[in-house]
């Protein structure tokens, strides 16, 4: 049985008829119609008639056809894009020369954001799921081409190269996802992501060590207390509060077995997706108008919130009933 997210994801590639959605998501027509009604009520989709067919499309679909090389299709200036692509190209070439393989996407993003921070470049960037990223998407299959002459007209090339060398030296010594995060987090003052990183490190089981379980409780509350007191995030913080309450209760009742550990990890992932999207938007408000961010990211925010809300509802039921 498919869910509402399957339908929404299917529409990301373009408008679909009811029959198309039935085939793509493998669900009954009645289920599809119910989910379409929910999405319409959330103002996430629109519909129109085409040759007597009911066609469903994502609201504001035209924005999804632009800026395919940026996250959430956000607009970016040509100058900022050129600097990102220039750095992408250099990182890819040097990484291949040193390690004989393409650089991981997470490493590329962290290198570029650190360079941008060092030089105070205007490249739009913000903290997201696993750290700070630029809005430019790195794709190892794209041959990024941007000459040094072009970049010298945008920024000081000597300073850019110096910053690049300093940052690359650190990341070339790392070879794992966790190490890339540690390098970026080492000089970060983002307390929420630091607390989340600590919590991640103890989230997996087994839950048989009482001392470790007490540490887990402390880190869960630490994560909750470091969440910024922002009024527009009240509903998101309530999800985190519910998760922490359930998580601590399960630990105290000694009810986290292998299966419950998996459910706990999945529930926290859904909540973190929701939190990270709000953090991403807040960070990007330095570079974009609030209305523009709402236009491009409201759909994702609402979808993430609904998914997290559904996950926490199940988690609450498993905890108390």
What does this structure look like?
This protein is mainly alpha-helical and 321 residues long. It folds into three domains: 4-64, Winged helix-like DNA-binding domain superfamily/Winged helix DNA-binding domain (Arc Repressor Mutant, subunit A, Orthogonal Bundle); 71-186, no CATH class; 191-320, no CATH class. Helices cover 63% and strands 6% of the residues. The protein has 13 helices and five strands. The protein has helices spanning 4-11, 18-25, 29-41, 78-99, 105-119, 148-152, 157-171, 177-186, 191-203, 210-225, 234-252, 258-284, 290-320; strands at 16-17, 45-50, 53-58, 125-127, 132-134. Strand 4 (125-127) and strand 5 form a beta hairpin. Helix 11 (234-252) packs antiparallel against helix 12, helix 11 runs parallel beside helix 13 (290-320) and helix 12 packs antiparallel against helix 13. It is globular and about 60 Å long. The mean pLDDT is 91.
Give the structure's gist in a few sentences:
With 321 residues, this protein is mainly alpha-helical.
Topology (elements, then pairings):
Elements: H1 4-11, E1 16-17, H2 18-25, H3 29-41, E2 45-50, E3 53-58, H4 78-99, H5 105-119, E4 125-127, E5 132-134, H6 148-152, H7 157-171, H8 177-186, H9 191-203, H10 210-225, H11 234-252, H12 258-284, H13 290-320
Antiparallel strand pairs: 1-3, 2-3, 4-5
Helix pairs in contact: 5-7, 5-8, 9-10, 10-11, 11-12, 11-13, 12-13
Which geometry do the CA atoms define?
Answer: globular
Count helical runs.
13
Q: Uncertain runs with pLDDT below 50, 5 residues or more?
A: none
Question: How many structural domains does the protein architecture include?
Answer: 3
- Distance linking N and C termini: 25 Å
Largest sheet: 3 strands, antiparallel
Record the strand order, biggest sheet.
1-3-2
Mean residue pLDDT: 91
Radius of gyration: 22 Å
Please provide the ordered H/E string of secondary-structure elements: HEHHEEHHEEHHHHHHHH
Question: How does the helix and strand content classify structurally?
Answer: mainly alpha
- Which percent range fits the helix content? 55-70%
- How large is the share of residues in beta strands? 5-15%
Write down how many β-strands occur, each being a DSSP E stretch of 2 or more residues: 5
């Amino acid at each position: 049985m498919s869910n509402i997210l399957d339908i929404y994801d299917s529409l990301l590639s373009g408008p679909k008829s009811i029959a198309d959605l039935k085939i793509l998501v493998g669900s009954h027509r009645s289920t599809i119609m119910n989910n379409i009604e929910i999405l319409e009520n959330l103002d996430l989709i629109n519909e129109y008639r085409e040759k007597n067919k009911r066609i469903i499309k994502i609201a504001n679909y035209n924005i999804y056809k632009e800026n395919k090389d940026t996250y959430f299709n956000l607009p970016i200036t040509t100058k900022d894009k050129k600097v990102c692509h220039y750095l992408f190209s250099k990182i890819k070439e040097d990484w291949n020369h040193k390690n004989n393989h393409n650089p991981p996407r997470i490493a590329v993003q962290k290198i570029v954001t650190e360079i941008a921070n060092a030089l105070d470049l205007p490249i739009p960037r913000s903290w997201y799921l696993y750290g700070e990223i630029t809005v430019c998407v790195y794709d190892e299959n794209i041959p990024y081409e941007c000459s040094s002459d072009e970049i010298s007209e945008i920024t000081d090339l000597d300073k850019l190269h110096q910053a690049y060398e300093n940052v690359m030296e650190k990341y070339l010594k790392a070879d794992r996802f966790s190490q890339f995060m540690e390098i970026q987090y080492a000089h970060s003052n983002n307390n929420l992501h630091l607390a989340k990183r600590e919590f991640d490190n103890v989230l997996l089981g087994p839950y048989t060590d009482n001392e470790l379980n007490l540490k887990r409780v402390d880190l869960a509350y630490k994560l909750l207390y470091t969440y910024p007191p922002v009024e527009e995030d009240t509903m998101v913080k309530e999800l985190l509060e519910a998760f922490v309450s359930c998580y601590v209760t399960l630990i105290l009742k000694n009810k986290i077995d292998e299966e419950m550990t998996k459910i706990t990890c999945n529930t926290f992932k859904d909540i973190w997706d929701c939190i990270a999207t709000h953090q991403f938007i807040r960070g990007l408000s330095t570079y974009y108008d609030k209305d523009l961010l709402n236009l491009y990211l409201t759909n994702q925010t609402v979808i993430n919130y609904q998914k997290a809300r559904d996950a926490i509802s199940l988690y609450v039921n498993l905890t108390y009933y």
